[in-house]
Amino acid sequence: MIKLIVLDVDGCLTDGKIIYGSEGSETKTFNVKDGLAIATWTRMGRDVAIITGRESKVVKRRADELGIKFLYQGVKDKKALLEDISKEHNISADEMAAIGDDLNDYAMLKYVKYSYTPADGVEDIKNIVTSVLSKNGGDGAVREMIEDILKLNNMKDKFLSLWTGV
Questions:
Q1: Rounded average pLDDT over 120-128
Q2: What is this structure's pTM?
């Protein structure tokens, strides 16, 4: 049973584009459908971790908005961090699923039970993951991943009941 989903940001939660304003602002675009699935996952009592190699106030804001418990920015070794999370929170690698799109996600994706990459993930990542999604990063890939995990773990009815009242 998956207890923790791990999300990369640029290229997974977003389309990978970073826009800098002349005054130093940073802009990212997030998908609302991804957000609803993430928020519902947490309402089911499951955890979400964002692990990203960059630092961004925009990512902190999005994590807070979605009630994401674990936010780690500026991470160089994502697998080592997951090993620490595993020990500290008693969550095994078999209880984790992750999405990543590029080489800095490689070791993390090899570590977890279920690994995913968006349709536009790099070829080396596509070759090692459990599933290559049909959606691109920032275009519903995280939602697609969560829906797959729900099916694999027989949790779809519980997920839907939070919205349908059934």
A1: 98
A2: 0.94
